[in-house]
Automatic annotation (TrEMBL):
The lineage of its organism: Eukaryota, Viridiplantae, Streptophyta, Embryophyta, Tracheophyta. InterPro entries: LOB. It comes from Phaseolus vulgaris. Residues 2-103 form the LOB domain. Belongs to the LOB domain-containing protein family. This is LOB domain-containing protein. Pfam families: LOB. Residues 154-176 are annotated as: Disordered. PROSITE patterns: LOB.
Length: 176
């Protein structure tokens, strides 16, 4: 039996009754490394033990998401991600209002009101109410498709090597 990601990381023997195996499979050793770094292996084990069995999968994913957010941004963690999203939402709302005012200049307020009424009659127009509180329901089908880890590459991998240069990698100044 191959050890789970948690046991691999901690270099322990992984038994059939391993608490971490369902939540940290062998291929997710890096995710457990983040969780271990931020929360500690013993704390994660205690958290999972104290959680209802049907909620452990959700708890493990939440801990993993929080740990990766803390590794990415050690100061703000998840709060930084939330603030960025709220700022993006605020900017988009401002742009939408500006666009509505711009359209209203050309078509008039009466036509604009009719357009808004017509748009709200479409079934997809009111799918998301941004002002309503979130209703969280835990469903294994939803949980299995949810991946909190979008493709992420460290900042240093986006750096391009300098253009032009000699064999030693030193850049050559352009002629003046």
């Amino acid at each position: 039996m191959t050890p789970c990601g948690a046991c691999k990381y901690q270099r322990r023997r992984c038994g059939a009754d391993c608490l971490m195996a369902p939540y940290f499979p062998a291929e997710s050793i890096q995710r457990f490394a983040y969780v271990h770094h931020v929360f500690g292996g013993g704390n994660v084990s205690n958290i999972l033990k104290s959680t209802k069995p049907e909620l452990r999968k959700w708890t493990a994913r939440a801990l993993t998401y929080q740990a990766e957010a803390r590794v990415r941004d050690p100061v703000h963690g998840c709060v930084g991600v939330i603030c960025e999203q709220e700022e993006s939402l605020r900017i988009l709302k401002e742009k939408l209002e500006k666009a509505k005012r711009e359209v209203a200049k050309y078509v008039g307020p009466e036509v604009m009101q009719k357009m808004i009424e017509q748009c709200s009659s479409y079934p997809h127009a009111n799918m998301v109410d941004l002002e309503a509180p979130l209703a969280i329901t835990i469903d294994d089908a939803d949980l299995s498709s949810w991946d909190p880890f979008p493709a992420w590459e460290p900042a240093f991998s986006r750096l391009q090597p300098p253009q032009g240069g000699d064999a030693k990698g030193e850049t050559i100044a352009p002629p003046s």
